[in-house]
Write a structure and sequence with these properties.
Elements (H helix, E strand, L loop, with lengths): L24 H9 L8 H14 L4 H6 L1 H7 L5 H5 L3 H7 L9 H21 L2 H6 L7 E2 L13 H12 L7 H10 L3 E2 L16
Helix pairs in contact: 2-7, 2-10, 6-7, 9-10
Amino acid sequence: MYSTRFPVMPPSDEITRCSWCGTDPLYVAYHDHEWGRPVHDDQHLFEMLTLEGAQAGLSWITVLRKREGYRDAFCHFDIEAVAAMTPGDEERLRGFEGIVRNRLKISSTVSNAKAFLKLQEEMGSFSEWYWAHTDGQVIQNQPQSLGDLPASTALSEQISKELKRLGFRFVGPTIIYAFMQATGMVNDHVLSCFVRQEMPKTT
């Protein structure tokens, strides 16, 4: 199972990070060890797609703090197990404080798992389908600051439309661009960020 219990580098005048992660230890660890690093594991991709969808209308740190709760609620993101969840399971989760208890977001996680399995069956893997959009390349943006980052792009709009056509929900262009950032399809670490130097140019 993919772990997110990473060490946090101590604050230092010699370390420059993207400003969005602030100084919260959980946020900093996520920035240093996960955000923007290419992901190819389907279960991890399903986890991030679920969490990005859960963020709609909320801050990312709110969802990040509930990550372990999501893992407990949704079978550690075992896609087949989530797809098999019943309406009774969904109703039960509406009383589970470890997740965002929005009825539509809970039900979309289950329906997205079903759509995810169908895509895997047709394409071989979600990862293969997803990364084909860039021919396996990481899009190297050149942001000087947080203000240079777009909310969505033509590619995130394209992927969003395709996912919606395949039956996915909570996959609008802005959510999908955040997903692309999180899973390393785009490198949006600012030019001065120490992590940027470690990022691969291909997958």
